[in-house]
Amino acid sequence: MTIKVGDTLPSGTLSEFIEVEGNGCSVGPNTFKVEDLTKGKKVVIFGLPGAFTPTCSAKHVPSYLANYDKLKAKGVDDILCMSVNDPFVMGAWARDQKSGGKVRMMGDGSADYTKSLGLELDLVARGMGVRCQRFSMLVDNGVVKTLNIEAPGKYEVSGGDTMLQQLG
């Protein structure tokens, strides 16, 4: 069943490659509980089919980086990008996109969290396995306030500009 506005996010974990030791995190892959990432915060989460893919790299992540200051001014505490990739790939992609300090690149290596959201995209026939649909959501203290799910192959409603407009 697909998550919807008004739902509380399911429990689960995402992994992030940490470049600098601190705040209780060691250098390398670190695992975070989604409920801890969203508790008491207003968080934008956007999901992508894969790191280093053309639309995701050229448009989706850059749209959130370009709108970072405006989103923060609207009360967003954190911006999380999640994709069905391991934390090493997501860390390399974070360096490539220069997202450090703005967009946290979170890996869902086995698509477990993506499946718990009901947002998986079956690309097995194309040799890419199970991926994440392109989406964005605003989560306030663990509750989904807005949700934008793209049609397969589209990039029309889940970018940073749309999220900024939805925040008013």
Task: Give your account of this protein's structure.
It is built from 6 helices and 9 strands. It is an alpha+beta fold. The radius of gyration is 15 Å and the shape is globular. The N and C termini lie far apart (29 Å).
Assembly status: single chain
Distance N to C terminus: 29 Å
**What is the topology, as strand order, of the major beta sheet?**
2-1-5-4-3-8-9
Low-confidence runs of at least 5 consecutive residues? none
Rounded average pLDDT: 91
* Residues in β-strands, percent: 25-35%
Tally of extended strands?
Answer: 9
What brief labels describe this structure?
168 residues; single chain; globular; 6 helices; alpha+beta
Short structural summary:
With 168 residues, the chain is α+β, with helices and mostly antiparallel strands. Helices cover 29% and strands 30% of the residues.
Topology:
Layout: E1 13-18, E2 28-33, H1 34-38, E3 42-48, H2 54-66, H3 68-73, E4 78-83, H4 87-97, E5 103-107, H5 112-117, E6 120-123, E7 129-132, E8 135-140, E9 143-149, H6 160-166
Parallel strand pairs: 3-4, 4-5
Antiparallel strand pairs: 1-2, 1-5, 3-8, 6-7, 8-9
